[in-house]
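Problem 12. The chain below contains 275 residues. Write out its predicted structure in token notation.
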Amino acid sequence: MGRFRYNDGFSLTEEGIPGFSIAFPHRHPHFEIFWFNEGHGLIERDCDVIQVHAKTLVILGPGDIHKWKETHHLGGYLLAVSEAFTSGSNFSLPFRELTAFLQPNGSRSIQLSASEDNLVRTVFEIIRDFDAQSNFDRKEVLKALLLILFSKINGFYVGRGAQKAAAAGNPLTQDFKRALLTECPRLASVKEFANHLKVSRSFLHRTVLQDTGFAPSDHIRDRIIFEAKRMLLHTAKTTTEIAEHLGFRSASYFSTFFQRHTGQRPREYRANRVT
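Solution.
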């Protein structure tokens, strides 16, 4: 059943297979948080395949290209929420809690323990049952519930140990990583990102390098390669069109850049990966 329509940046749906059965590649400008309480299936996300079961959380970020490959009696909740929904007042930070998930190599999923699953179920059910006609400010209460949910999700994620480094870092580094998701390739240099984040280029360089061990330029390069792979796999655009979209001065320069960092020319990568 649909509880809220996505007309103010927030929606929650409780459905079975019909709600989780889009079988063609697509993307959204908002975040999608899935919690499954039954069944199993496979989601194809960009270059990866995510296995889902009961007690699985899946977080998809803006721009993630995804589709369902398999669904077997899936049930649970789908929460869709825009970052703009949480802006203002004291609730502009929740999406920082999800930064570790949203990098190109982020896992996007967590298999929950019994206690974690009970906690997530409780928060989703509170959101589901929230009385929109109460005397409380509905939007502010929902923001607070999202902050709790996102903070708990982040706690589950970093608690896995191997993910601690990905989730840690200065708020500026987290904001830079989120900007990579939404502003690249429109922004394609460290200076442009620094201006966007309202800091100096040198300060951004030092902060990101200290937190991650890699310079901002390395992250930008990796993001451009990731976007190139995504376009090669999920669009019919030519190499020339992809090069233009990503800001390269020529298709040959893009091809050389792509081969240097992947070991394959764009056409070879597409031919080897597309079946």
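Discussion. Residues 169-273 form a domain with the Arc Repressor Mutant, subunit A fold (CATH 1.10.10.60). Students who got a different answer should revisit the alignment rule from Section 12.3.
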